[in-house]
TrEMBL record:
Record-linked Pfam families: Peptidase_U32
Organism phylogeny: Bacteria, Pseudomonadati, Campylobacterota, Epsilonproteobacteria, Campylobacterales
Domain of life per record: Bacteria
Keyword Protease: yes
Record organism: Arcobacter acticola
The protein's name: Collagenase-like peptidase, U32 family
GO MF entry, a single one: peptidase activity
Amino acid sequence: MDNKKVELLSPAGNLEKLKIAIKYGADAVYAGVSHFSLRIRAGKEFTFETFKEGIDYAHAHGKKVYATINGFPFNSQIELLKKHIATMASLEPDGFIVAAPGVVKLCREIAPQIDIHLSTQANVLNYLDAQVFWDMGVKRIVVAREISLKDVVEIKKHLPDMEIEIFVHGSMCFAYSGRCLVSAVQMGRVPNRGSCANDCRFEYTLYAVNEDHNTLFRLEEEPGVGTYIFNSKDMNLASHIQEILDSGAVDSLKIEGRTKSPYYAAVTAKAYRSAIDDYYDDKYDADKYQRELHTTKNRGFTDAYLIHRPFEKTDSQNHDYALSKGSYEVTGLVTEDEEHFLCKYKVYPNEDIEIFTPTGEVLEEAENEIGKIFKKGDLYYINFKKILTETNKELESVHSGNVNKIKLPGKLPYLTMFRVENVTEIIE
């Protein structure tokens, strides 16, 4: 790899999250329109028009957008797929993320001007497979999540001009690189075509049957063990960024999560942006990034397989719960005019609320009849004396169901968030 900084690639589940990821530090985002994308639910958030708007927004900020066309099509879908590739190419994304070899070939024929990135669904673990796709015209490989850093280095050694992207954060699948059919069997929703029902996250009870006389009995379980039997913890490699970048083999660090919350998009982008920048400035501090990442909803964290082989892992499953609340709750999001916010949880007068800003923003303290913005320690807070709507109606409090814009005591950057610490962490 040359001396340029590694790319930070964030998920964009909709237009708002695309803007948040960019404002909070991502160099590039990946997203899709629902057809042929492995996140149909996220893809439905985009139309071709809003996807184009997102691409234009990213390019205006010097960032990139990679379009996901990483589903596995049936014969009956090929003609529709051809039209989809042509339409997506006309929007001028910076690359296509593709999984199936036939779709790679089709993209090269229909849109040779668009770079091809090979999806992690293609399960590349070695330089032989990487060479095959390189020869097909693939510019970048998103390696299998089961790969080791040693093997990533080996691929780069054999193919120094091929870009290598690795996942560093987000949900993990219990199946091999996500190639799963559980929800297809149970729910009729096909994971490899983008409609996974996340059946692996469900709570299961185990039974045994004696086939001779058809006796069925429930297996006794230790409390909390054997209940979420397929439930993988979430990947978190923030404490390993230094050794990853020291390897010189990785060109892009990817965060999973197109269906995650705007807060998740913001925190993960900002934390990994900080980790990357601190690495190049010789100020790397893993504890700092972990403090932020632990505020997001998660299933518990694991460093997955990049550093340790799968057979060495004994802590990659969460048997206790499907998803935790996270240690912070988002209460507000600043609007584009930078003079109001929209409530996302609940806000009361006379409470100190932490301000969480996009990367690189510097705040000014302010105070007036509405409230004050002030610094306490290393953090900034906002405290409302009055809760006033855009039309000057005063409220006793404001909750997430209220869609009125609420006035700020001073200007704050667009997409700034307000957050409060959860008193108790609730499991859902």
